[in-house]
Design brief:
The chain is built from seven helices and five strands, in the order βαβαβαβαβααα. By secondary structure, the protein is of the alpha/beta class. The radius of gyration is 17 Å and the shape is globular.
């Protein structure tokens, strides 16, 4: 089996982004993989210590300009977005738009159309990661669902129309 490449695409902020939970989940994955993550965020030192403590080999890379993020996404087999408060953030949307498989904790009650999972535990996350590293059929199905969501919700013309409605309402109500 080829060595799969995983990117933790959020800065290290344990409370908001939950990158510590991703590190713990990765420590339980049984299939071979290589993980990269950013060398930044308020909890970067804690992340380095945690990775060493749990025996996880992590490549910490320098932050890249926003216009180069797509290259990092394309170089990864799996992108880990956020395992924090359950919000949908730009990292997840952009990785999905690049056609990359994304694991990202999302509160479904706020994003019912989005195909990202609501992840309840580190163990569930670990199982999901392992599934996506080994099951190509599941990967294809999930990537297509994620791309479909991005196309139906986050394409520029759709966003422009929604923004126009918001501004028009502000002008007419104010």
């Amino acid at each position: 089996m080829e060595l799969k490449k995983i990117l933790i695409a959020s800065q290290h902020n344990f409370q908001i982004k939950g990158t510590d939970k991703f590190l713990h989940a990765l420590a339980h994955v049984k299939v071979p993989f290589k993980v990269k993550t950013f060398n930044g965020g308020k909890d970067i030192e804690k992340a380095r210590v945690l990775a060493r403590k749990i025996g996880l080999e992590v490549e910490f890379i320098k932050t890249v300009p926003h216009d180069k993020m797509n290259e990092l996404f394309w170089s990864a087999d799996l992108v880990l977005g956020s395992f924090g408060v359950g919000q949908l953030d730009t990292v997840a949307i952009e990785a999905m738009a690049c056609g990359r498989l994304v694991v990202h904790h999302l509160l479904q009650r706020f994003y019912p159309q989005c195909s990202l999972q609501e992840i309840d535990s580190v163990e569930e996350c670990s199982s999901l990661i392992e599934k996506f590293l080994t099951d190509e059929k599941a990967v294809r199905k999930q990537v297509e669902a994620q791309l479909s969501y991005v196309r139906s919700t986050h394409m520029a013309p759709i966003l422009a129309e929604r923004l126009d409605k918001i501004y028009t309402k502000q002008l007419t109500d104010g």
